[in-house]
Amino acid sequence: MNDWFEWNGVRCTEYGIYVSEQPPITLPQERSTQTKIPGRPGSLTTLEGDDVYDDLTMTATCFIRDPALIPAIAGWLKGGGTVTFANRPGGFYHARIANQIPFEKILRGNPHCSFAVTFRCSPPFWYVSNPDEVTITTSSAVVVNPGSVYSEPIIHVYGSGDFTLIVNDTFIELEGIENGIVLNSVIQEAYQGETLLNEKMECDFPVLKPGNNLISWSGDVSRLVIVPNWRYL
After folding, report:
1. What is the reported pTM?
2. Do 120 and 141 reside in the same domain of the chain?
3. CA distance to 83, 127, 136, 144, 147, per residue, from 232 (Å)
């Protein structure tokens, strides 16, 4: 049955909401600039960068059976979080509720009247739910990204002292580490527990490109544990 979505881990059917039309699986639009050049047909397209896309809006058409649930629904369908659609299970989008839900259309004496919920997905990628962690115990290992767009991993580095972590062409210098460090590419922070350690890191936060990624290090590192955050267009 494709009659549901989940918002922040709660299925809409728990609020008496059923989906009559799922949003189609849609590719986001690349962010680009078109420049018309005098004397030349067409236009020149300039991309803002690799894998830079506009937000994605996805709308689910729904209906309810009991208007008495509207106050509870209004308190639930708001703000930001994660949304999973029945026609694309096994993953989720980061999103915000992007529209004013027209409850007045539901209150015209027909409890089965439809309404729409629009989610603005940003970043506009579909994330795999609970991806398996990747543990690396020897340098010069290959990690394969099965997704169609680069991922922003969370890398737990276990070791002490000074060392260099290399992810593809990114060299990350780590100095004065005691009992490990976490490199969180999602929030662009380095830390251990609740202590920020950004001053102990030099270079950009690493990403894992689609396909093969070579990971190595120098120094006293015992292992890496990677939360890969695989994602797709």
Report:
1. 0.87
2. no
3. 15, 7, 24, 14, 5
